[in-house]
Amino acid sequence: MVYTSNNWLSLTKLWLETEFSFDSFESIKVPAKSVYHSVKSRQYLTLVIIGLFWLRALVLNVIFQVNDGDDVSGVWDLFSTASLYGAINLIVIFALWYWSGGNLRGLGLRKEGAGKHLLIGMLFGLAMLLQHYLLTGPLIRSFVPANADQGIDMPLLFQNTADIPFWILLSVFKGGFEEELWRSFEMNSFKRVFGKAGLVFGLIAGAVFFGLQHSYQGLDSVISTGFDGLLYGLIYLRRRSVIEAMAAHATFDIISILAGYYIYAG
Description:
By secondary structure, this protein is mainly α. The chain has one domain (35-264). The protein is 74% helix and 0% strand. The longest helix has 49 residues, at 164-212. The chain is globular. Mean pLDDT is 86; it is low at 20-28.
């Protein structure tokens, strides 16, 4: 008897059914429903972890008035501390997002049209700068008195122009890349579970807690920064491109830093 590939397949199937009592090959497949529930459970757990990050901001920054910039002795100290926190947050973002079934496109990271989105984002950054310092900032301070920054010696940070490259790197990595990727992660994590309502909730709640992280600068800064966070989220939602939001945030921070040197260093 000549054994063809079909013969071998039939014999293998017969052996499996006899040896392991399989009714059919279908019994060794993972049910699609089980996979769905497993991914959904991970998505819910991701929301819980995001909630814990928000709780941390509420407890440390608002209740105990602890700022990550406290005890900063210079630009290098600030750069290393902020970069460390940023790197940790990025690890959390990518680990949770992939673990719960996501991919880079789902966070708004796409290669298509990246250059165009980068340029548009920079223009948005200029617009954000104008609205912050000429419109919403003065308007908010007319109702809420401005407080001096607590825990950070601003003139100390803007004394040496040789530190400008560190500031630019920090603005691009922490302010632009990490913070806006975190914002996209928040919004899209809630959207996956609760749909459009979750997206709106993630946008608003993320902006609120973004503002609360600046509570050491006073209530006026909490409100204005929270409003900025809301606008960054809307920039992302415009084309679902986190690159635009990253470029806008980095541009805002870099120009603000250069203005800081002009103000404090003369």
